[in-house]
Amino acid sequence: MSGSYYVPATSKWPALGSLALGVMMIGAGMVLVHDRGGIVMMIGLAGVLAVMALWFRDVVVESRKGLYDAQMDRSFRWGMGWFIFSEVMFFAAFFGALFYIRFFAVPWLAGEGTKGATALLWPEFTAHWPLISPPDASIAGPTEVFSPWQLPLVNTLILISSSITLTVAHEALKEGQRKICRNWLAGTVLLGLCFIAIQGVEYYEAYTHYGITLEAGIYGATFFILTGFHGLHVIVGTIILIVMLARIMRRHFTPEEHFGFEAASWYWHFVDVVWVGLFLTVYVF
């Protein structure tokens, strides 16, 4: 549509997606607090997946009809850029909480700093991190923590490798080498699935052998909040990459017009960078 600006039709998917996500989070909260609500959570999850599928369908149909022009392309790029910025702020809040706890709250409880008077609460407490022994004896901390050089390092290498394979796939698409793009993108999807599986193993080990649970004091809470939300982003990113792989196999993109693929790449690289930060702050230091 040369010389025109396409305004997409009013969409019900943002509202329905928010509703489904809200139901899923309510169910998750019920599971965590009351140990029930699994059905509510699964209904919400099914709703989220359904909205994603139908929303992807509508965008693909609009794109294949040639409704998007250069102005829409700029709008999409700005929109994706602001979305990733919002994700940066999302994780910055959790990283900020971790740093505040490690470098301010825990030392204060041990009598350090200007607020050291809080040490009167637990005078025998000694500041240390990871917080294996919480100051309140009624809270059982983890028995031990993960070595960063085992499963966490494997997952780090997997995600770094996935960024490389995705970059190769993107460059191949820009050169019109669709078969090479398909193969390297399939490799990226496989690496994403491996990361998810290994993190599942790590969570199983955390609960059964390391005593790292949501009830294991502030260490357990921050561990699962940071790695859990990142894992959720990896799952979403892997789903998006699977959609991109299906579109590549159906010859939907051209070397000149493939912003859907490019946006998926931006998101995946962002998720990889976040993991490097998590690996360093949660596991190594």
Automatic annotation (TrEMBL):
Record localization: Cell membrane; Membrane
Keyword Cell membrane: no
Heme-copper oxidase subunit III family profile domain ranges (all copies): 1-285
EC id: 7.1.1.9
Protein name: cytochrome-c oxidase
Record-linked PROSITE patterns: COX3
Bilayer-crossing regions: 12-33, 39-57, 78-101, 149-169, 181-198, 218-245, 266-284
Keyword presence, Cell cycle: no
Gene Ontology MF terms: cytochrome-c oxidase activity
Family per similarity comment: Belongs to the cytochrome c oxidase subunit 3 family.
Enzyme class, broadest EC rank: translocase
Family annotation (PANTHER family): CYTOCHROME C OXIDASE SUBUNIT 3, CYTOCHROME C OXIDASE SUBUNIT III
Keywords: Membrane, Translocase, Transmembrane, Transmembrane helix
Main location: membrane
Cellular component GO terms held in the UniProt record: plasma membrane
One biological process term in Gene Ontology: aerobic electron transport chain
